[in-house]
Amino acid sequence: MDPYMLRRNIEELGIESDSDTETQDLSNQRDKRTGRGPTQMRGIWGRRESEGLIQVTCNEIGQPDDKVATKLSNFMGTIIRDKMIFPLTYSSWHKVPREIKNNLWKILQTKFDLHDSMKTWTMQKFGKKLRDWRQLNFKDQRVEEAHFEYILKYWSTDQAREIS
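Above: the chain's sequence. Below: its structure in token form.
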């Protein structure tokens, strides 16, 4: 119960409260923290074409090397977590069809000015984002039930156990 409402109910009912109990209730509720939620990158998804592309510079091996790298990486995570863009039914990143991977690359290019040398890095990063998204003890409301059931069944197969 909300600490304010708890105190208010006690006062309205004329109940003498045990201050230790009330303090304990308040301290227990402070321990429960809610997170900030998943990154949505609204500033990037909502960018208009007239604002231009976000410039990304990369080093000699195709990795972004400026402040925009974090934004790029977080944005890639939002793409992988979007069930309308990327279904969770693939057993590994290597089995994702090339056309879907190319679609992911095109989505990135609509928001960021990426050099072609960065494509390898971005595909590796998408693979990592996918592995992070498919953790076993995790069920998010944004994951379609059928996709989650499929991947759970796959993880229980001998083939998946051999790979991991």
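Residues 1-10 have pLDDT under 50 and may be disordered.
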